[in-house]
Amino acid sequence: MDLSRSALKVFLAKGGNAIVFFAGITVFARELGASQIGIFFLFQTVLGLTSIVADVGVRGALEKRLSEGQQPNTMLATAIGLKLVTVSGAATLILVARPYLNQYLGGEFAAYLVIALVIQEFADLFIQAVRGELRVGQTAIIEFAREVVWVVSGLLLVSAGYGVVGLVYGLILGSTTAACWAFLKLETNVGWPAEVSAWSLYDYAKYYFLSSVSGQVYQWMDVAIIGLFLTYADVGAYEVAWEVTLLVLLVSKTLSITLFPQMSQWSAEAAVSRIEAVVPHALGVALFLSIPAFVGVFVLNYEVLRVVFGSEYTIAAGVLVVLMAEKVFQSANDVLGSTLRGIDRVDLVARAVVVTIAINLVLNVVLVLTVGLLGAAIATTTAAIVQTLLNGRYLSQNITLRVPYRLIAWSIVSATGMGLIVSWTRATLPLEGFALLTTCIGVGVASYLLISGIVPSLRQQVIVPGARMLVSFVRPVESSPK
To answer: Which domain holds residue 88?
Structure first.
């Protein structure tokens, strides 16, 4: 697998996903208002939390075993069989809790939850199977199509007066598209399930389950608790702030997705030196983008929410800053956690997850009740910091982990300079609203790249390699002579 090329494919597709998704959320938030969009976010929250039960690590275990080349046909069939069992159990739980879920969500949504859960789980299973075949780049367009179908159909249905239900229909249509496409992309044939394959999947899934729970908990626990104690409008404002911060994880999530199957292969080949060489560079690249994003949001938080989404969402301005700080640590954790899973130490990832889930749950309840929206953001950020430190410690116990302190320090210096320039621009330009916001963002991006370009280490290790990778991706590959 060409690691750089696959990473760029995934990044470009995820960038497209982010643009489409962000545009959709912006329109939906303005059209429906904070309370109605808050109901949809709660629907997504319950869907995300029930998917924990519906997966129990099967998807990640299948990707791992396929990347190792272990009886792929049998593994795929066994994973599908296990998935049918786990999804049925999760769907049963939803139907049993139907009255309570409908009350929590403010409408008759339980049946939609079952449909969305089943289709989403098989879509994700087939996508991770394609990744396990070391064809990560080819899954990028599938996930992009899923996002486009959801946004376009959601826009049409909301315009037709379907409201929140229209967004749910769009979500289901998007997952259906991804499931069909990913299944057709698979090169592995579906064989016959085998007990030995089931145990092999279980041996990895039991730890991967806990590590995957972490992502779901971080994404949904705070929203779920806000939904219990605060209003739908609070949910809407908080989740809009969360979605804004997710943009900064484009690079780290791309690296995580791309690194895992490659790290798994290198680990199986005992090529530890190759792993040790890649991790510092991946950390440097991830933080090179997440650090200035935090500084930019620190300066422009109120303007981003007011101009893009509307004044009713500005109650989450402080939340936006805290959650963006969380994304700085999460961007590093994406690389560290993916590497640990790739070297088959998912047990250590699971150990860190147990600790951080407990911290996240307790702090969310206490701080949401005492502080409100900002308390949820503080709780989630605290848990993210703890998990990042634990995963870094565990990884350093298994390989020689070289943290790129020099790159991080220069990224902070460059981002600070950018922040001062953006602050001056905002205070001096006679502009308002969208014109001021876009000008400040443009000035921020340009100034950060210019300042970073002056620093030799940033220029040589991040900017120039990134530019070369982009050029190599765009330039047609010359055919070799016969």
So the answer is: 3-403
Q: How many domains does the chain divide into? A: 1
Condensed to tens digits (0 to 9), the pLDDT of residues 65-120 reads: 777 777 778 888 888 888 889 899 999 999 999 999 999 988 889 999 999 999 99
> Is 315 inside any structural domain?
yes
Retrieve residue 70's tokens: 């272990």
Query: Is 412 a member of any domain?
Result: no
* pLDDT tens track for 191-240: 787 777 778 777 777 777 766 666 666 667 888 899 888 888 999 999 89
Whether residue 447 is contained in a domain is answered as no
Q: Is residue 215 part of a domain?
A: yes
